Amino acid sequence: MHTGIDFNVMSVALFLSEIILLISKRSSAAKGGASHDRKSLLLIWLTIMFSIFASVYLSAVFPASVYPVALCWAGTGIFIVGMAVRFLAIYQLGKAFTVDVAVSTT
């Protein structure tokens, strides 16, 4: 049965990866140039925080023990595949990837 350890490890990994990306992948416009962001980064972070709060709350209301073990493993697998696709996309984009919205003239 799931013990919640994998949830905690995945949550910490996601949080740390987002912080690292936020620090290391800011666009040059955000570092001092003109940014055309219409608060989309703020909206993304608010959505992330709300989703985490909702998932923790719902996990308390609907304990995992009422779901089949296979469903729990499927959710874990989807999370891992989603993270892998995200990191592959960031790797493919290379220097073109930024965490904020900025319009480059070059």
Q: If you compute it from the alpha carbons, what radius of gyration comes out, rounded to the nearest whole angstrom?
A: 17 Å
**Portion in strands:** under 5%
Shape: elongated
Task: Please give the largest β-sheet.
Answer: none
Number of helices: 3
Average pLDDT over all residues: 77
Overall structural domain count: 1
Cα(first) to Cα(last) distance is: 53 Å
Question: Which stretches are low in confidence, meaning pLDDT under 50 for 5 or more residues running?
Answer: none
Overview of the structural elements:
There is one protein chain. The chain is mostly helical. It has one domain. It has helices at 5-24, 40-61, 69-93. Helix 1 packs parallel to helix 3. It is elongated.
Main traits of this protein?
106 residues, 3 helices, mainly alpha
Briefly say what this structure is:
With 106 residues, this protein is an all-alpha fold. It is built from three helices and no strands.
What is the topology?
Layout: H1 5-24, H2 40-61, H3 69-93
